[in-house]
Amino acid sequence: MTLHKRRLRELIVFAVMATLVGLPWIIMQQKPAAYRFQYEFSRRFQLLLGKEQGPRRQPPWRETLKLSKEEFPGLDKVLARASMHDRTVILTTLNAAWAQPNTMVDLFLDSFEQGDGIKYLLKHLVIIALDQVAYDRCTELHTACFMLTTEGVDFAADKFFMTEDYLKMMWRRIEFLRYVLEMGYNFVFSDADIMWFRDPFPRFDKTADLQIACDKYTGIPEDLENRPNGGFVYARSNNRSIDFYKYWYMSREDHPGLHDQDVLNEIKFDQDFVDIGLELQFLDTLYFGGFCEVSRDLESVCTMHANCCTGLQRKLQDLRLVKEDWKRFKEMPLQMKRHQRVYWRAPRLCLLSFES
Q: What residue stretches are annotated with the Nucleotide-diphospho-sugar transferase domain (predicted)?
């Protein structure tokens, strides 16, 4: 190679590298899509240099993680009855501790009744009961109930954060949600300690495969530095979302002792995760707030989650404050809403959750 050609090649490589580093930074200041752009540009640059040697190996979890219809008898009928026209369902889980009268399930269902024109969403809600007590209570309160059993595990009692039974319950949930996707249903999964105020669907991005709530939101939907919270998820059924749930569930073995959210934080930078091609977005806490990061805009908020809080009684007390504040806001005259800002009183007791 002549000196002229060598210098020309070095100049081209330098220009490409400068673009690789600088252009995403410039775009990042203006468009959230910069994160996707940065990855795709990097991948194409590796291909240009001859460093990408073709498709990666077929991950073993794609074939080994199989679930059968017999494991969830009757689920197809329950989902079909509750489904929207586009095969979307709303799901929550319930155990005996949260199913007692005047506790979590009552607050959850009542929030749809008291929300801003969202009562109709109840017909698309399926309550997944984790024990017989929860199933019996569900059938008293709601029309779409499904009993999800796990051999050798009792999910009836209140599961304290990060205990062994708590982790088993979280991973059983991930496994179940993956099967719902495999059945061809999109879903909104909502923990039962979430109050619903407005229809969330207009806030969802129609192109994303999976959108998840945050404990902490950076302000950019694609930013992987967001802190996800698996208590509120919107997932569209396709090969990418199914592969992601398989990979998420399998990854529990590589990260023993971590719950689903912490494992997601670990794997979201993995090459296998990148190869899935999942269009992942994080939901703005302005619309999907919680006790970790409270939405201050009652005119816009869709949901409020009792996250960053441990203990059933703490959650109940603070969610009752949320319910009262929402009722007070709804009853205010429009003119007063414009001139008098309403703030949530919660969290209160939940602030004591992690004190020693």
A: 121-319
Using one digit for the tens of pLDDT, what is the confidence trace for 157-185? 544 444 667 788 788 899 999 999 999 99
9 Cβ neighbours under 8 A, 6+ residues apart = 1
Stretches in the chain below the pLDDT threshold 70:
1-69, 151-164, 356
